[in-house]
From TrEMBL:
Organism field: Corallococcus coralloides (strain ATCC 25202 / DSM 2259 / NBRC 100086 / M2) (Myxococcus coralloides)
Localization in the cell: Cytoplasm
Name of the protein in question: Elongation factor P
Function: Involved in peptide bond synthesis. Stimulates efficient translation and peptide-bond synthesis on native or reconstituted 70S ribosomes in vitro. Probably functions indirectly by altering the affinity of the ribosome for aminoacyl-tRNA, thus increasing their reactivity as acceptors for peptidyl transferase.
The keyword Protein biosynthesis belongs to this UniProt entry's keyword annotation: yes
GO molecular function: translation elongation factor activity
GO biological process: peptide biosynthetic process
Record keywords, A-Z: Cytoplasm, Elongation factor, Protein biosynthesis
Annotated ranges, domain Elongation factor P C-terminal: 132-188
Amino acid sequence: MAGFVDTSEFRNGLKILWEDKPYVIEYFQHVKPGKGSSFTRTKIRSLLDGRVLEPTLKSGDKVGTPDIESKDMQFLYVQGDEYHFMEKKTFEQTFLTKEGLGEAANFLKENLDVEILFWNGKAINVTLPNSVDLKVTKCDPGVRGDTVSGALKPATLETGYTVNVPLFINEGDVLKIDTREGGKYLTRVATGG
């Protein structure tokens, strides 16, 4: 059951209701000015459409907490604009649209375990693992002797996402990609054969 939370209980990652919609707190700061009453600056992101707001609340204000359920699910397949997921225990299936997934759609591959958030019985958001291993499907070959430090080139991954990688990466390599930082290359996991 949904309840209320005071501004003194704010923390990053806390899910709140703002204007009757679920949001997650990405950043907050308690401010105590020399004159006047204290307040809390926040940066919140909508769990429905990814929109970011920066409301300021008076110290002691209360906001609602959404009745959100989280389920561990597995990504199955894409059909048109719908990304389908299945709960492993009950085999119950649900889907999210590409628009609803936002950036997460760039990192989904078959059988990837994710966490799906449900609000009022409807799937609204996905939480990915911090990193995923994806295969390079298209990339210019590395040139022997090209050792410019810090130089990058684009590589297309199996999901269709393009990421900048070091010059030594080749087609067929498997890369570890950070899903939190907008898809940054972390390291090469395996070389292509």
